[in-house]
Amino acid sequence: MAGSHVHSLVLTDIATEWTEAVGMIVREQTLVIESVEDVRRRLPFGMRGLDVDNGSAFINEALVAYSRDKKLELTRCRAYKKNDQAWIEQKNGAVVRRMVGYGWLEGSAATTVLNQLFAAARFYVNYFQPSFQPSFKLLSKSRDGAKASLSTAWRDGEVRPTHRKRATGPRTWRTRTDPFEKVWPLVSASAIIPKSAFEKSPPRN
Predict the structure, then answer these.
(1) Is pTM beyond 0.70 here?
(2) What is the pLDDT of residues 152-202, one digit of tens each?
(3) Whole domain around residue 99: which residue ranges?
(4) Taking the alpha carbons of 69, 25, 128, 53 in that order, is the dihedral positive or negative?
(5) How many domains does one find in the chain?
(6) Which residue of 8, 53, 175, 180 is surrounded by the most CB atoms within 10 Å?
(7) Is the Cβ–Cβ distance between 11 and 39 less than 8 Å?
(8) Residue 133: closest CA among 39, 17, 55, 28
């Protein structure tokens, strides 16, 4: 867990779902600005604003000055409201983690290779997979036939469909095959030991 590792800066346009990713050798405000500028230049449309999370790599005077210089509207998500970034979180899973995985990368060589991958995949993701990488957002949901609500489910205990209730009585069944099933009558019969076996035998001469 110690040390620095490669970060992926991912930007997604909410209107068109166009997604760009840039690998950064460390998470630092100067590299964030350089990466954003690199993405801004190669976008097929103009960038009008940025909506970022609350990390120090984004909420700083350098990015504010950059946004003012480029006439970008800079906004941020609400504190402790991670779902405000649902569009980008979905792309992180559907694009970046699907291509790269969950392993940690380190060093400039890994950053170079990662950026080569992102450069090769950007057209494939944005042009040839628009229907497979959508950003669907839930508008509403309703229960059909459910008797318990989330506000009262805790009173009824576990309500997951995969949950099995704990047995109340003694268990009368086996969970494994009985290795003595075929010979058990013989074992039971041989367990009857005659009384003479317990009597002391006379001393030998």
Answers:
(1) no
(2) 655 555 555 555 667 677 877 778 887 878 887 877 776 665 555 545 555
(3) 7-127
(4) negative
(5) 1
(6) 8
(7) yes
(8) 17
